[in-house]
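For reproducibility, we list the full input for the 2-phosphoglycolic acid complex.
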Amino acid sequence: MGRKPLVGISLKIYQNKIAEAVNYAQSISQLTNGETDLELFILPSMGVIYPVAQALHNRENVIGLGAQNIAPIANGALTGEFSIESLVDLQGHYVEIGHYERRTYFHEDNELINQKIQLTLKNQLVPLLCIGEAQQTTGAELKTVFKKILAADLANISPAQLATLIIAYEPYWAIGKAAAAQASYVAVAHTMIREALAELIGPTADNVRIIYGGSVSKDTAGSLVNNPNVDGVFVGRFGHDPQNFAEIVKIVKQVKLQAN
Ligand code: PGA
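The corresponding predicted structure, in tokenized form, follows.
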């Protein structure tokens, strides 16, 4: 089934100085050495997105660039927000939308998230929609939870428009922890997400890549992606060392390419 495996990292607001962010981006670019079997991306801290974009463009680089958030409108009176127009200009490709921290600390609701997804698609960029449940939940119930979130976040968007969508499954209870969720739990959750999605958008659900995020490390990446419904990983703190990020890429490649 032709879904290309993905490994990405969000730097949140770590690595906020130009030199450290640029060094980091250059290091992972070097260490992953023109990898093309997987799709790789970096979402830098917003204040250094421009120098990171420059650094990536100056190299024979295959690491895609994205933003951790955008404003719901492209242009206008929204003090302090980041416009998708800037991201397009920087040749960014991915827009993270609806991360747990945005939904919780910044009170982003489904309507706002839906607006951001629509704006991203209108600009031909790729929405990276984060969803997750607050507490560990059993299979059938999980599907109900996901279906409700997805129905609201993806409202009024045609299935054809959603072929490029990426979903990051990030259980709230596994973010910022010592270890990721159990691989067996993640396998069930991803299956439930794909089933819920299929009920909402039909066969296009097969094109949507679903990646796992939440305390992913090189120790857990292999078992997490060892399932046909887990298309990759979305890395946080445990990818801050470029060697670790490169190691995760290597492991995911081994598992996914062997499986296909
Ligand atoms: P973490 O971050 O790996 O540091 O938990 C992951 C995320 O929130 O995307």
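The radius of gyration is 17 Å. The mean pLDDT is 96. Both points were considered when choosing residues for closer inspection.
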